[in-house]
Write a structure and sequence with these properties.
Layout lengths: L13 H19 L3 H5 L11 H9 L7 H22 L1 H22 L9 H11 L11 H20 L6 H25 L1
């Protein structure tokens, strides 16, 4: 007996796919405008609190990227880790993680680094990586995978922040990881308390 089933493509992870599409659109728009779009919408830097674009940039900076290599590096990791997290935690929770990471990293950068622009989804990547290490959390236990991921990823960022001089915002990576870990802990604890 043969079953003739047609395969179809499913939009399996609306938040992650939507985020990736927005990042791609931001890259194309920035390419067309020769950098003006990133400066206006997709990077965060100190600007007037009276300007509405200041508040757009506090969130929009995670959509912008400095180039295609930067874009592909971040989006590849987000597309690998994100759909599994969206399935486990739900679309609304994952959207909240992305927005919380954007706002946290944007505010810290706005306040403490007034003369430097920040853009890219690296903070979101680190939030998702640390969040993913909480997927098998049980009550009263801290997953060893979380501890290893935290030591390896956060430790690497601290080391590179102190000893490697490049254009990578290690603080953004650390903050993203802290947001992902904190929200992962809270979401898992809330889920366990419901049962």
């Amino acid at each position: 007996m043969s079953v003739n089933r047609k395969l179809k493509v499913s939009f399996n992870s609306p938040v992650i796919l939507g985020f990736a599409i927005l990042c791609f659109a931001a890259m194309v728009l920035d390419f067309i405008t020769r950098g003006a779009a990133n400066h206006a919408f997709f990077s965060v830097y100190r600007s007037s609190l009276l300007s509405p674009l200041t508040y757009v940039r506090l969130f929009g900076h995670v959509l912008g990227h400095a180039g295609w290599a930067h874009f592909f590096g971040n989006i590849t990791l987000i597309l690998v880790v994100g759909p599994l997290l969206e399935e486990k935690y739900g679309s609304a929770n994952l959207l909240f993680v992305i927005l919380a990471t954007a706002l946290t990293t944007g505010l810290v950068h706005f306040i403490f680094f007034p003369r430097v622009g920040l853009l890219g989804a690296s903070g979101v990547v680190f939030a998702l990586i640390l969040l993913s290490s909480f997927t098998s959390m049980k009550e009263g236990e801290i997953p060893l995978t979380f501890l290893l991921v935290a030591v390896i990823y956060i430790g690497q960022q601290v080391y590179e922040g102190l000893f490697v001089h490049d254009n990578v915002s290690n603080l953004t990576h650390i903050l993203g990881g802290v947001v992902g870990a904190g929200l992962g802990f809270v979401m898992n604890r809330n889920k366990m308390n419901r049962y």
